[in-house]
Amino acid sequence: MLRWSIATVSMGGTLEAKLAAVARAGFRAVEIFENDLTFFSGKPRDVRARAEDLGLEIIGLQPLRDFEAMPEPLRTRNFDRAERKFDLMEELGTRFLGMCSSVSEDSADDKDRAAADLADLADRAARRGFRLGYEALAWGRHVRDWMQAYELVCLADRPNLGIVLDSFHICVNKNPIAPLADIPAARIGLVQLSDAPGILMDPMSLSRHHRCFPGQGDHPVAQFLDAVMKTGYRGPVSLEAFNDQFRGAPVAMIARDGMRCLQMAGERLDMDRAAQGLEPLRIGAALPAASHIDGIEFVEFATGESSGFVDLLKGLGFARVARHRSKAVDLYRQNDLNIVVNREQEGFAHAFGLLHGTSMCALGLRFERPDVALDRANALGAPTYFGRIGPGESLIPAVAGVENSLIYLMGAKTDGATNWDRDFVFDSSEAPGALKSFDHFSNVLRRSEFLSWMTFYKSVLGLVNDPQVEVADPYGAFYSRVIRSPDAKVRIPLNIADGGSTAVSRFIDAFGGSGVQHIALETDDIFTFVEAAVARGVTFLTIPDNYYDDLSARFADLDDALIARMRHLGILYDRSRTGEFFQIYTATFEKTFFFEIVERRTYELFGAANTPVRLAAQVAEQERED
Ligand code: MG
Ligand code: MG
Fold first, then answer.
1. Which of 8, 40, 227, 578 is least surrounded by Cβ atoms within 10 Å, i.e. has the fewest?
2. Number of structural domains, the chain?
3. All residues with CB under 5 Å from ion ligand 2
4. Are 25 and 155 within one domain?
5. 456 CA distance to ligand 1 centroid (A)?
C-alpha cells in the first residue's frame, strides 16, 4: 500500500521515544535501523509489540552492508550474518531487508558474481518469506548509481529482490531521474526520500551529516517522486535523513517536521500529476489547499508597564485610536498599519513579555479563506489556540509560531472579518501618517530550529522561500533566507545564528530564544519622515561617516546633496538592477528590537549590502551603552 514511512535513523533519542513520536506525528509505518536495536534495552519482539500498540507497521530492517562479491571466507561469513538478520526480522515481524552496495576494498569488480550472491541470498530469504532491497550508495566501491544497482537486480532476477530507490544517492550523483519511470514496479523494493542543501561537499559527508527532509534542501525531490510514481510503484515511501541537527533536536519536533514535509511532497506530487493529466495519489491524509494570504492585519507587542515602547511608536507617527473593551490593550494605528500594545498583567502576552521583555508576541495574518487556512494548519500538526476572551469579544483562532508566539488566522479585509469594532472602543479610526505598510519582519532563529521553522512557514502558512545568503558580521557570519507569500505581501527574512558573538547570536541571548528582531515599515518619502520623527524625539542608529565616503565612490552618479542629506540623517542606500532603496534603523530598544523604515523605488531586495554597516553600528551602539 502506498503510504508514508520514516526510518528511525532520522531522529535522535531512544527507540521507544522515536516510535512514540513517529506514531504521534501520524505515521503508520516505520523502518528500523539496526543501530537503534543495539541500544534498545528490551528484546526485538518487545519492539514489535510496542510498534503494534502504536499502530505502526515495521516495513523493513536495514542495513545489510558489504555483502556482495566478497572472497571466501568472507563470503560464507556474510551469508551467516544475513541469516542472523533474518532471525532478527522474524522477531521484529518485518518481511523486508534493505542492503546497500558494498564499500569494501575486498569486494570484486564482477557483476556476475555480485548478481549471483544477490540471487543466492534472495533464494534463502524466499524460504523464510522475506524480500530484499538493494540500494546503490553514492560512494559504493563498484556500484554507485541506480543504473548499476538495477542491472544487478535484473541479472539476479528473483521475484523477492528489488532495487531501493533513495532520492539522496540518485540526486547527489546527478543520476538521470526521468528514466526511473521505466523501471517495472515489481522490480522496486522500497522508495526512500530525503533532501540536501546544494553545497559542495563530498557525498558521504553530506549524506551522513546534512541530509534533510524533502523541501528543506535543493535536490529535485519532486521530479524524483513524480518519476517513481509513474512506474506504478505503490509501496511505502520512507523518509531517511541522517542529520546531526535532527538527532540533537526534540524527537517529537523532527517526526512532526518529517510528516509536514511528506505531506507537502504529496501535495506537490498530485499538483504535478494533475498538470500531466494523471490521477492524484493522495498519499496519507488529503491536505486542504493553502489559502491565499491577503496581508498583515496587525502585529501585537507585549510591553508590560514599560512606556518607552509607546513613546517610540508615537515618535514614528502612530496614534492610539482605540482601547480594548475588557483588557489593558491599546490599538495604535498609522494608515493601514495596526500595532496592538498589550499591557495585561496576566495571560499569554504577559507571560511572553516576562520571558522576552518588550517583544512582538503575535501576528495577525489575513487569509482569503481563514477557515481553510486553519484546517490546513490542523492537518499539518499545528493545533488551534483559542485565547481567553471577554463577553461579546470575537474569537480569532491562532496557531503557535516561533517561541510560542501566536499567529492569528484572520479573514480578508474586504469581508469585514477583522473584528476591531467588536473588541475595541475607538476614539477615531483614521490615523494618517507617512508610514504606509509592513514591509517585512525578521525572525532570528537558532540554527537547530531553522529548518523546522522554514518548514512551518512553508507548509502551515503556504509561504515560499528564496535562496540562502551569507551575511558578514563584525563577529562572524550568519545566514539569511527570505520566506515570503507567493505575491510577496508578507516577507520574513529568517536569520540564522551559528553561535559566537554575531548580532544574531547576541539577540538570541538577550531575547531568551528565537524571535522577531526588527519590523520594517514602508514610506513613500523617507527624508521627510525621518526629519519629522527626529523632531518627535526618535533616535536613529548612528552610521559611521566612512559609509557615506564609500557610497560616493561606489555610486559615482549619486548626487552630492543627496548623500549629504543621507549622511545627516543616517539613511542607507542601495541600488539593484530594478531600482533604488533607502533605509534607516531606529536605535535598538531594550537591546533586542528595532524598527527599520524603508523607501522602495521599484527595488525588490532587502538592502543586504548594508547589513554589515548596520551590524557594526549596532555593535558600537551596544558598546556605548555597556
Ligand atoms: Mg537509503
Ligand atoms: Mg530588514
1. 578
2. 3
3. 520, 596
4. yes
5. 25
DSSP notation for 414-479: GGTTT-HHHHEEES-S----SEEEEEEEEEEEEHHHHHHHHHHHHHTS--EEEEEEEEEETTEEEE
Euclidean distance between the first and final Cα of the chain, in Å?
63
C-beta separation of 244 from 209 below 8 A: yes
Query: What share of the chain has pLDDT > 70, as a percent?
Result: 96
Task: Pick the ligand that lies closest to the CA of residue 444.
Answer: 2
At 311, list the grid cell: 513613546
Would residue 258 count as lying in a domain?
A: yes
Pair 263, 301 in one domain: no
The per-residue pLDDT for 499 is 66
Higher per-residue confidence, 22 vs 413: 22
CATH code, domain with 357: 3.10.180.10
> Could you read off the pLDDT of 59-106 as tens digits, one per residue?
999 999 999 999 999 999 999 999 999 999 999 999 999 999 999 999
Ligand sitting nearest the alpha carbon of 522: 2
Q: Identify whether residues 320 and 270 lie together within a single domain.
A: no
Ligand with the closest atom to the CA of 492: 2
What is the DSSP code (8-state) at residue 385? B
* One domain for residues 447 and 521: yes
pLDDT digits (tens, 9 = 90+) for 263-309: 999 999 999 999 999 999 999 878 999 999 999 999 999 997 778 99
Q: Which residues span the domain enclosing 299?
A: 293-426
Grid look-up 507569500 returns 485
- Does 511 share its domain with 554? yes
Q: Which ligand is nearest to the CA of 480?
A: 2
367: its cell numbers: 487569509
Q: Counting ligands in written order, which one lies closest to the CA of residue 239? A: 1
Residues with CB under 5 A from ligand 1 (ion): 166, 192, 240
Q: Tell me the pTM.
A: 0.93
104 C-alpha to center of ligand 1: Å? 18
Distance 164 CA to ligand 1 centre (A): 7
Residue 281 belongs to some domain of the structure: no
Centre of ligand 1 to C-alpha 167, Å, is 8
